[in-house]
Write a sequence for this structure.
DNA sequence: ATCAATTGTGCGAACGTTCTCATATTTAGG
DNA sequence: CCTAAATATGAGAACGTTCGCACAATTGAT
């Protein structure tokens, strides 16, 4: 490159032009300490004239604060994380904070790298949807190293960090209860249900029913299954294990296969409960492919409210998580910690809203015994 | 806070423990220069033992490179920006770069603040969907200050920065031609059409028809109107000015009002062309509200392919921009510039794909003369 | 054997801020 | 008038790295 001038106007040059020390120039430009009205003007004028831009790197190096918060999302491309991120970014911006973003794709290895990078970049705090809620030594280490953490959507067991979640268990129980009340006895469920530390779905059923399981220690999809089981128990309806479509991974393809299989059974469910945005879209796709009518052939309730649920055929009844609000709350908690709040850990549980629309009806007839 | 230890293990301490100079420790840990195998091991062991984490701030301050690229999106919450961002983040991560994100909400003032913040944080480059393509002095200044810029979706007139866009004019022309070929003579269009430097829609029509307008200097929605006009001209079909629904702002409410008005006319169009994701969703909403059947009562083609377009009633025919690819390309261009590429500006135009589905049919009858 | 690379090391100066300290000067209260 | 606070300034040391330089020690080709 021929020319590479400009850009590096330092505070020293501004000070020189203004005829004061760098210390004084720093004080007026950084706004910290005493300066005479006289010098304030002179320094500001010089800064303006030279087109001075403070170098936040240098400031951060000495203050130890970067005014940047790191975010590890699963996948910003999903409306779920996109909305949360929006909430975070808004609050951060309002306070002059920047947002450093990474995706984990729910892969622990990625998360590890991401957290590493963010910490090296000296972020003031970390907002994360943790992949692994049972161990996550790296997160414990981060906290120990003085980096406050706010968890989103799920909670690492025993981690000293705030959290913002939704009562998935109650919301799910509510959905299933509504379906049961409408007369459905065979309610299908499509859920990720990837990791559970202590066994398989059968074990899980037992543990829920004998109340020896703390839902707070689970991944959301397991919490939602928790509510599904509870609702059935409360209504005295036995659960057909075959109706619990465990996808086992966060994958559209796998979910599609699983859903098609579930809905193609001769004794297919009369109602379906999808447990997140991905499975809802996939289910809708399968339903269209199989030419099933909603709610005549199949009732449907979805977790996560997507824009198309408003205007599709009959509206789709759904649970809406307050996503941007969750992001905002997370950022607010974070900023409080950064400002020095060292009170006890806060675990916010925001209220989801229930969007009653037209996808639930009474079952037309029993498909099979 | 009672304890605030750990976290600050510096390279000096590592060096001391390893019994070498900070320079040597720096060389092995930073991987830049010569070091004996012997010392390499010793230093690495010491670093490991102390839990050393490099402070990228300090490194950046001296190298002048932060390995961070700034992104100014309109609104990450929209699938459009979310997908682009995903592409950017992937490429960045693969090269060890971080992504600093901000939203402009397409507001110049916000963009100004955002760019300011990013520059002060010393980003290595800026990827932006610029609000104002006619002036943007701040972007020219950034380039002059040595910060490479890659523009997305639209191009600031005369700005020395690369760009990644889509041929909106051609894609739009193609859509309209298909509708015309299907027999539609009254094709409605809903578009933002917020800013055009040189006048109103009438003037624009004239300028397009006498070929005195360079589409590259326009906002996407105007480019799409450009194609709409051209297609009509090519087919020899006169344009009814009333069918061009100019929303005038990026607002769902305004778009809804405009769309409802357009579709409620006694001489309503027999086909509709929506020009982005927002207007498509809004149009779908309006269509449902008015109880119009697709494609019987109304044919529909949308710009931007959204997930629900696959599984809604008849599939919705749409133009799909290669969003993640655009993000990836933008990041790639950016990284090349950062690595020192000072070749001529590149203006990439990626090919959109056309998803032919079931929302287009011949018009059933003329609604009115 | 000689000279020029190549390899290896440490010292101390950067980078652009803020911070600590020392030292004035002004203000205010008795 | 005196003293204590408040206001104002500058010199120079931080912050944690990398970089330039000087200087050895080792190579390898003539």
């Amino acid at each position: 490159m021929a020319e590479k001038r400009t850009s590096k106007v330092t505070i020293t040059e501004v000070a020189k032009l203004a005829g004061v020390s760098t210390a004084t120039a720093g004080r007026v430009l950084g706004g910290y300490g005493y300066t005479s009205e006289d010098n304030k003007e002179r320094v500001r004028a010089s800064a303006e004239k030279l087109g001075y831009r403070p170098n936040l790197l240098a400031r951060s190096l000495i203050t130890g604060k970067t005014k940047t918060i790191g975010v590890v999302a699963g996948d910003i491309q999903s409306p779920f994380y996109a909305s949360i991120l929006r909430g975070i970014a808004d609050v951060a911006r309002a306070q002059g904070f920047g947002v450093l973003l990474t995706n984990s794709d729910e892969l622990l290895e990625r998360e590890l790298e991401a957290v590493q990078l963010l910490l090296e970049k000296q972020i003031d705090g970390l907002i994360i949807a943790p992949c692994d809620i049972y161990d996550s030594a790296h997160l414990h280490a981060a906290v120990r190293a003085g980096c406050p953490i706010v968890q989103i959507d799920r909670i690492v067991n025993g981690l000293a960090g705030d959290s913002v979640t939704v009562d998935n268990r109650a919301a799910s129980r509510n959905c299933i209860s509504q379906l049961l009340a409408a007369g459905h006895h065979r309610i299908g469920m499509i859920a990720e249900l990837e990791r559970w530390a202590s066994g398989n779905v059968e074990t899980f059923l037992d543990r829920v029913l004998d109340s020896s399981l703390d839902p707070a220690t689970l991944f959301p999809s397991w919490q939602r299954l928790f509510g599904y089981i509870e609702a059935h128990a409360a209504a005295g309806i036995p659960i057909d294990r075959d109706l619990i479509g465990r996808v086992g991974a966060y994958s559209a393809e796998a979910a599609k296969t699983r859903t098609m299989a579930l809905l193609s059974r001769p004794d297919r469910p009369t109602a379906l409960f999808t447990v997140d945005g991905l499975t809802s879209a996939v289910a809708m796709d399968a339903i269209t492919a199989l030419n099933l009518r909603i709610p005549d052939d199949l009732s449907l309730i979805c977790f996560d409210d997507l824009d198309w649920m408003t205007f599709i055929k009959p509206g789709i009844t759904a649970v809406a998580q307050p996503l941007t609000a969750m992001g905002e709350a997370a950022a607010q908690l974070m900023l409080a910690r950064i400002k020095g709040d060292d009170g006890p850990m806060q675990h916010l549980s925001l209220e989801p809203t229930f969007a009653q629309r037209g996808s639930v009806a009474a079952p037309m007839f029993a498909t099979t015994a």
